[in-house]
Write a structure and sequence with these properties.
heterodimer; A: mainly alpha; globular; B: mainly alpha; two-stranded antiparallel sheet; 20 helices
């Protein structure tokens, strides 16, 4: 175990690159070698993930575990600092789970123009970037991994995408790059203004708490991060790249994009922006909340207007990430716990929706909702799967989607100190209305695609079959987890809560020192919610 | 009378020469002579030895550079006219290694054309000799001799394809503009000599720092000399030769001009600014500021419109000259600022050499099939030359500054050098550089998009055969580009240099 504690995360980050390097040595005609190598590599990372799950000390989920710190770029004091705590563990495991499943799904489904070698190598490079982003504890390191993700995704869309792939890929790239440029500027400004001579998240957070950065500067810097991370989430009004990218991306790209890449943005908020700049977060929270609510409603209305199934799912992502952002905007640890749960749930559910959409496209050669129909008749199992995940997506209690949305809405009732309560209660109502719209568009989608009789052009089409072996292997873990997390949400909440409390509550409590009374009220309120949820059979944390 | 004078003249005494210090130059000189001899003795039969001989010569010259670096002592020759300090050694190593990569790039290109090879490599070696002399030259005359030694072979190399009108145009333009710039520079040098009575940079530095430095004559001298080198590094508004010369010259020569020749100009500029002109930051700072801002902006904006990749790279090179020059615009603020900007310039030059040579390697390899440098002719490369496409992606995205490829670190240190002094002009220039970085990404990305996503013209997807030397050149540069980006301390250790005579601060 000691070996893993020192080397596990490093191995995790670089294993996919090593895999890709090995693949480079084989000619592209040996397709099966490439598939085996790529799958093998991702399975190795998954096994390390299992070891991590076993070795992880859940009683100390608020501390960085498997932490490693080495000098990297001395002259700017950037470090190779990696580690895992309760906040990043669920997202890392999600990544380690989804990527092998995507490769299994690809087995016989490589999109045009085929070329599995290049496709799988890109996925592996992407894998490195995603893992690295979730384990980095140094801003420069985080930035590097954040950017590593960009190029493989760009090429995945640009080469293996749909008809409009060039436009969509460029839009994706330029949007994200613009955001990350602002993000880098914010990081640098923090570094120079805080004068802490470090890029480590904890170090900067301490330096800011000691008053190293003026309030105005904090607000500006947070604004830069808001744009940087907000574009990646994506938040309204920076979301326009998402429907294009999702619609044009190959199925595998869409799944990874939805399941993992969008989380990099929200993860940035809870890991970097809020812990380092809590004061500025309080100032910006009404804006984030407002954009989140607009996203929820706008995304839902957008869904109702779509005629393309994939585009509809993309818009539903905008709405769902709105709930996540609303949870974050409350700045309560309850809301942020919900947000992290929401990220995992959205990753599983929307990833699954894109898988199904991809398989539908492969069978029907179209995703025009008006031409589909009768999936339950032609391919009943697939129809049921679509029904199941639609239910999960609309937030049916008992499935994972519920635990992302409901607590986030609940948290908006009583946001953190300094955040306008009345406004957030209004947001709460808006967000609650959004769930109705979500039910509307998802049920309508289900009705139009799964119910009824198959249209004439697809009736008795032998191509329209139930999921094949690869699809079952790829989908079953996701479906099971959607159900398990829905029934036992504590599986995630118990891991995230200590870490969220350590990262968020501590730093927010520092600026309410002069307002002790109201802070106590806040704590009481939290206990109240805990009690309420205890009735529902959910345990949050291990109590104070 | 004249007899008296003659009697007074001391008998000539050879100044003491530190043979170790000048060993790299002597080795290159020897190999240059050897190349000419090989040509004279073996004639046609000598052809196949020439490229390896040149390559071996460049690598052999690296040996004394390394031993000097291990020795570590600063050496001064000829009363301070010739200095071997760690700045000089780092730049010499860079010139020799990029020269070696240029030999690798040239091998097949030159041997497949129907031209004399010995002369080509002879001139290449003597041009590189001029560059490594430049790295040590701390005296106006040595600088000028080094400049001519590196430029004149380069003029000839640009016209290498003598039956091609474009190549002739390239060389002629380069020559005329080069001579003009030399004349301007020489005039500036004469003014500097006039006020200081010395050609040694450190002595000029003392005078320029003193009361005489306030004079208009000194200011004119500074401006003229900087303008002359601004031509060499193709900074706007002295850039007009670059696109035509780059396009018309044989591609390996273009790579050489874009990397080594440009770096030599910067080496001279750095020496002049830090040693000679240190006291007149009121002159060189605004001048550098304007040159840097104009080069970045105009270079990038015109690059957006290019359809020929070599021309695009020419404009991207103009923009890069702006980035490299930018730190010099704040160098005079303080001792820290000076250190930071020197480090930034050296870091950028080293990383830029790797990534830019790489781009030209890919262009050469692609042109073996497409016979064209039009960007559209590279369409669909991903389907028949995935390796080249990935290599091009690495190099262009490195130039764009996407981590973890080398260029991000180069840009990062430039930004750092600009904001460290905390002056308004530094911040504004940093903002200009930031906006320009985003513009640059667009045209780099559109090349990549053509290569990855478009369909090959006429559906021709026969693979490209890449000769071994070209492949080696691309592998070396790709490795360096990646290594510098993933592990920046690698380049930090070499860029942590000081000039032996850095002016008062």
């Amino acid at each position: 175990m000691d070996f893993f504690r020192d080397w596990g995360l490093t191995l995790l980050i670089f294993a996919p690159l090593i895999g890709a390097a090995v693949m480079m040595a084989f000619p592209k005609t040996d397709e099966s070698i490439h598939k085996v190598l790529a799958l093998g590599t991702t399975l190795v990372t998954a096994v390390i993930g299992v070891v991590l799950l076993i070795d992880f000390d859940y009683d100390r989920a608020d501390e960085m575990q498997w932490a490693v710190e080495r000098n990297w770029i001395d002259i700017i004091r950037a470090e190779y600092a990696v580690g895992i705590d309760g906040m990043s563990l669920p997202l890392l495991i999600l990544t380690l789970l989804v990527v092998p499943l995507v490769i299994i799904y690809s087995w016989n489904h490589f999109p045009h123009p085929h070329n599995p070698k290049a496709f799988l190598m890109l996925i592996l490079v992407l894998h490195t970037g995603m893992i690295g982003s979730f384990v980095a504890r140094d801003l420069v390191l985080f930035f590097v991994f954040f950017e590593v993700v960009l190029l493989p995704m760009f090429f995945m869309i640009a080469v293996w995408g749909g008809e409009d792939r060039k436009y969509a890929s460029l839009k994706f790239f330029l949007y994200t790059l613009f955001g990350s440029a602002l993000m880098l500027v914010s990081f640098l400004a923090l570094f120079f203004l805080a004068g802490a001579e470090t890029f480590s998240i904890v170090g900067l957070s301490d330096a800011v708490a000691e008053g190293g950065v003026s309030r105005n500067a904090q607000i500006w810097i947070f604004g830069g991060m808001l744009l940087g991370f907000g574009i990646k989430v994506p938040m309204f009004p920076f979301h326009t790249w998402l429907p294009d990218a999702h619609t044009q991306a190959p199925t595998q790209g869409s799944v990874i994009l939805a399941a993992v890449l969008l989380k990099l943005g929200t993860y940035g908020f809870v890991r970097i922006a809020i812990p380092i700049l809590p004061e500025a977060a309080v100032v910006w929270s009404p804006v984030i909340g407002a954009l989140a609510c607009i996203g929820i409603i706008y995304g839902a209305l957008g869904c109702l207007a779509q005629t393309d199934m994939k585009r509809l799912i993309a818009f539903s992502s905008v709405a769902h990430m709105g709930y996540v952002m609303l949870g974050i905007a409350t700045l309560t640890d309850w809301g942020i716990n919900a947000a992290i749960f929401g990220m995992v749930a959205h990753g599983l559910i929307t990833g699954m929706l894109f898988f199904v959409a991809g398989s539908v496209k492969e069978r029907y050669h179209t995703l025009e909702i008006s031409r589909l129909g009768g999936l339950l008749v032609s391919a009943p199992r697939m129809g049921w799967i679509l029904g199941f995940i639609s239910m999960a997506s609309l937030g049916l209690p008992g499935l994972a989607g519920f635990w992302g949305e409901f607590p986030a809405i609940l948290a908006a009732y009583n946001p953190a100190n300094g955040v306008p309560v009345g406004l957030f209660r209004f947001y709460m109502v808006v967000a609650a209305l959004g769930t109705v719209l979500a039910a509307g568009y998802l049920l309508w989608l289900l009705q139009r695609t799964a119910m009824g009789e198959p249209s004439e052009e697809f009736a008795n089409n032998p191509e329209i079959t139930d999921p094949n072996r690869e699809e079952w292997i790829a989908w079953t873990p996701l479906l099971v987890l959607i159900l398990v997390f829905g029934l036992v949400p504590g599986l995630i909440f118990n891991i995230t809560d200590p870490a969220v409390e350590a990262n968020i509550s501590d730093c927010l409590s520092t600026d309410v020192g002069d307002d002790k009374a109201s802070f106590d009220v806040g704590t009481c309120e939290r206990d109240g919610i805990d009690a309420a949820l205890a009735d529902l059979g959910v345990a949050i944390g291990d109590g104070e | 009378m004249s007899i008296d004078l003659l009697a007074q003249v001391q008998p000539f005494e050879r100044p003491a020469i530190d043979w170790h210090a000048v060993a790299p130059e002597l080795i290159l000189l020897g190999f240059g002579a050897l190349l000419t001899l090989a040509d004279a003795i073996w004639l046609e039969r000598g052809r196949r030895f020439t490229a390896p001989l040149a390559g071996i010569g460049l690598l052999a010259a690296m040996i004394p550079v390394i031993t000097l670096a291990i020795d570590g002592a600063d050496r001064t020759l000829f009363n301070g006219a010739y200095v071997v300090d760690n700045f000089a050694l780092v730049m010499k190593a860079m010139f020799l290694l990029s020269g070696y990569v240029v030999v690798l790039l040239s091998t097949n290109y030159i041997s497949e054309g129907d031209y004399w090879e010995n002369e080509y490599y002879g001139m290449l070696v003597s041009s590189i000799l001029g560059m490594i002399v430049m790295a040590s030259a701390r005296d106006l005359i040595s600088i000028f001799v080094a400049l001519e030694l590196l430029s004149i072979p380069a003029y000839l190399m640009a016209t290498w394809r003598k039956r091609d009108l474009k190549s002739n145009e390239a060389g002629l333009k380069y020559y005329l503009m080069g001579v003009f710039a030399s004349a301007v520079m020489l005039y500036g040098m004469s003014l500097l000599y006039g006020i200081s009575g010395s050609s040694i940079l450190s002595e000029i530095g003392e005078v320029v720092n003193g009361p005489d430095g306030e004079s208009t004559v000194a200011a004119m001298g500074v401006v003229f000399v900087i303008a002359g080198f601004a031509f060499k590094v193709s900074a706007v508004p002295f850039h007009t030769w670059a696109p035509d010369t780059y396009e018309g010259a044989p591609t390996p020569v273009t790579a050489f001009l874009a990397v080594a020749s440009k770096a030599a100009g910067f080496v001279a500029l750095v020496q002049l600014v830090f040693v000679g002109f240190w006291g007149r930051d009121d002159i060189y700072e605004p001048l550098m500021w304007a040159l840097a801002a104009a080069s970045m902006t105009i270079g990038n904006l015109i690059a957006l419109r290019q359809t020929n990749i070599v021309r695009m790279m020419a404009y991207s090179g103009i923009a890069s000259a702006g980035y490299i020059m930018a730190p010099l615009a704040v160098a005079g603020e303080s001792a820290t600022a000076a250190d930071e900007s020197l480090r930034a310039v050296v870091t950028y030059l080293v990383i830029y050499a790797a990534m830019n040579l790489g781009v030209f390697g890919v262009i050469l390899a692609m042109a073996r099939k497409t016979r064209s440098a039009e960007i559209s002719s590279f369409a669909g490369a991903f389907h028949y030359a995935p390796g080249l496409t990935v290599a091009m992606t690495i190099f262009l995205m490195a130039l764009a500054g996407i981590p973890p490829l080398g260029g991000w670190w180069a840009k990062f240190v430039v930004f750092r050098a600009l904001v460290v002094p905390g002056t308004i002009s530094g911040y504004v220039l940093a903002a200009v550089a930031a906006v320009n970085s985003v513009i640059a990404i667009y045209y780099y990305l559109s090349v990549l998009r053509t290569m990855w996503a478009d369909d090959a013209p006429d559906g021709d997807v026969t693979p490209i055969r890449i000769p071994a030397s070209l492949a080696a050149a691309m592998a070396l540069t790709a490795f360096a580009t990646l290594a510098f980006g993933v592990w920046p301390p690698l380049v930090d250790t070499v860029s942590d240099v000081t000039l032996l005579v850095s002016g008062g601060s």
